[in-house]
């Protein structure tokens, strides 16, 4: 088709570019609809879905998506884009804007034997190290805590720098503690870790001379007395193959049976008071849980004092950044 304009012929311009196809997912509406109809996902806004509704519910930000698109550019070559590049763009943005907090996903009880009975200490917690203007806030500390179960080993493996019998570690923003023993149930499972603390290490700092010393491990915690339970949904990639269906022609053959896990976690009270469904990261929609990742409030959360539901947006581990750093310069 052409248009004649004052004796000239103007030819239409055709611009072609390749589809944006991330790895470990499918973009075909037919395949996405089938997953919804078959109950593989909860709906079009399931946080594992590559839809705007799904990304928004999981906690992806417009800034991260735009930065990702600018990074990969426009090309005519049909190819798959590593999903890790999108996750990298998201981490870079959330690292700047997401407030920090502590939570324990798989709790193990820790008792400090020499802690004064009934005493609660209010410790300073840095709201966001990337934003000096965010300042600090208070977080409660008591003699009974929850720590991550994976942060303790009765028989530590080589290069395990976390808590073990006779080993001293730093509790984030709190104190040094040394493990003195464990309590087990009738099945031989560890139900409680016993420790002592050093009062001179308040704030997580090394004690002054002549008792100054350093520890190799730092772990996070939540005061058991003040902890608030929350349902946390841990999402992984929806497919196990980079190109779903490439081998068999059926993407359903590559579905990841472990793409969604639900745990009952304990979060610090500040999160429960601040978290607001539908809010932005800056205004209480989500937090970076230290050492665990970024978590965003889900619409299934009930109004206070109802149950909180959080979705893991992305972990802290950034495989793309490591790969990019190790690749030769073009």
Please provide a written account of the structure:
The protein is α+β, with helices and mostly antiparallel strands and 330 residues long. The protein folds into two domains: 15-101 and 227-318, Orthogonal Bundle (Glutamyl-tRNA Synthetase, domain 2), CATH 1.10.1160; 103-220, Beta Barrel (Ribosomal Protein L25, Chain P). The protein contains six helices and 18 strands. The strands form four sheets. Strands 3-16-17-18-14-15-4 form a seven-stranded mixed β-sheet. A seven-stranded mixed β-sheet has the order 12-9-10-11-5-8-13, with no helix packed on it. Strands 1-2 form a two-stranded antiparallel ribbon.
Mean pLDDT: 92
Classify the beta-strand content into a percent band: 25-35%
Q: Looking at CATH, which topology of the largest domain would you report?
A: Glutamyl-tRNA Synthetase, domain 2
* 3D shape: elongated
State the strand order across the main sheet.
3-16-17-18-14-15-4
Counting DSSP E segments of at least 2 residues, the number of strands comes to: 18
- The CATH superfamily name of the largest domain is Glutamyl-trna Synthetase, Domain 2
Query: For the record, what CATH class of the largest domain applies?
Result: Mainly Alpha
Approximately how much helix is present in the residues?
A: 10-25%
> Please, how many helices?
6
Pairing-aware structural class of the strands and helices? Answer: alpha+beta
- Radius of gyration, in angstroms, nearest whole number: 24 Å
The structural domain count equals 2
């Amino acid at each position: 088709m052409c248009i004649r304009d004052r004796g000239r012929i103007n030819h239409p311009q055709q611009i072609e570019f390749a589809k944006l196809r991330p790895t470990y997912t499918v973009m075909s509406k037919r395949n996405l609809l089938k997953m919804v109809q078959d109950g593989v996902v909860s709906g079009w806004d399931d946080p594992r879905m590559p839809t705007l509704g799904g990304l928004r519910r999981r906690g992806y930000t417009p800034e991260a998506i735009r930065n990702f698109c600018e990074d990969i550019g426009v090309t005519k070559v049909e190819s798959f884009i590593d999903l890790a590049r999108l996750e990298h763009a998201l981490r870079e943005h959330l690292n700047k804007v997401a407030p920090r907090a502590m939570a324990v996903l798989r709790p193990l009880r820790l008792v400090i034997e020499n802690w004064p009975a009934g005493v609660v200490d209010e410790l300073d917690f840095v709201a966001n190290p990337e934003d000096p203007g965010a300042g600090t806030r208070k977080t409660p500390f008591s003699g009974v805590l929850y720590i991550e179960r994976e942060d303790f080993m009765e028989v530590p493996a080589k290069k395990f720098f976390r808590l073990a019998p006779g080993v001293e570690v730093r509790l984030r923003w709190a104190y040094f503690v040394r493990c003195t023993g464990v309590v087990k149930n009738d099945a031989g499972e560890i139900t409680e870790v016993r420790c002592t603390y050093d009062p001179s290490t308040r704030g997580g700092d090394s004690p002054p001379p002549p008792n100054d010393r350093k520890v190799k491990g730092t772990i996070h915690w939540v005061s058991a007395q003040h902890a608030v339970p929350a349902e946390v949904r841990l999402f992984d990639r929806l497919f196990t193959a980079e190109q779903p269906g490439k081998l068999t022609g059926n993407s359903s053959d590559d579905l990841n049976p472990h793409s969604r896990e639900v745990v009952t976690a304990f979060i610090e009270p500040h999160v429960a008071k601040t978290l607001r469904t539908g809010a932005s990261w800056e205004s209480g929609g989500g937090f970076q849980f230290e050492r665990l990742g970024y978590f965003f409030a889900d619409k299934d959360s009930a109004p206070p004092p109802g149950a909180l539901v959080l979705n893991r947006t992305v972990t802290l581990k950034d495989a793309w950044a490591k790969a990019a750093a190790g690749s030769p310069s073009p």
